[in-house]
Fold Cytosine-specific methyltransferase.
Amino acid sequence: MVKNLSYKVLDIFSGCGGLSLGLEQAGFEIVLGIDNWQDALNTFKKNHINSETYCHDLSKIDYNHIEKNYLKDGIDVIVGGPPCQGFSISGKRDPSDPRNKLYTSFVKSVKHFKPKAFVMENVPNLASMQQGRIKDIITSEFESLGYSIKSERLLTSDYGVPQNRKRFIMVGLLNDTEFSFPAKTHFENKITTEQAISDLPENSVVCGAGYLSKPLSNYQKHIRGKSKGIFNHVITNHTEKTTSIISLVPDGGNYKDLPNKYKNTRNVNIAWTRFNSKKPSLTIDTGHRHHFHYKYNRVPTVRESARLQSFPDDFIFLGSKTSQYKQVGNAVPPILSKSLGLALLNNLG
């Protein structure tokens, strides 16, 4: 890890802290995480023991209060992922959706603190929303504050995350400095689902239980890190009918591989999809009810999902299992965040 803690980070819409974790690994100091979901902040605090958290509605936040009580020594970088349901292709993509305006809270924070840099993350189709007008509006607002803006749509598997997750990243730097996005590190040799989770057992384990095998890949060796055992690995017990249907789907298959009588049992196009063991996983979402383990007849556990999001095994999720799944699915993959952080350090000098 780069030992450079001179750059202090404020993470708003922080969730459980995936973006912060990667930046911390790159050498940044995470001072404060703000979100309106206490479960996620509990997880954030457990895994960022030197950071503070603040639970509040970002659309109503008083940044003078934040500055006085949490950021007395100033802030250098603001990062965050404003809620994206209004932009997402899984929603209606209604331009008048009030959730589309939540980015204004991010803009207000940048205007108030005037950090050296900011990083904003969102769903990939924000770039094309209303033929690009939404992105242009956001860009012009930041440019009016004196920032040079660069934005790209990134595929996380290009950076060593075992998941084909696309994200929109916008980076702003003061004083006309232009950000350079990190080069792809895994354009061809992508980390597969099997390389990510094949060492995790079929059944549940008690939190903290020791590993049952040695690492079966370099990724597993890396992701185990300092962890002494397995956490958040509790399986979902499906009905006998569900289990039997899953068993009919081959590695990498989906509902098209089922007998006709089962093909319409779930009316979504991703129904009954197994991960492909030889490819990165599909996008880890917050529900985890339609994608199944490439080998076992069940949905992935929280730990398996966290592995596919590139969280290290010593990152422990708190709250109910449903809450943990949501925290994992909403997060920015830390390995991608670390790549962005290292690139940002180069720009900041």
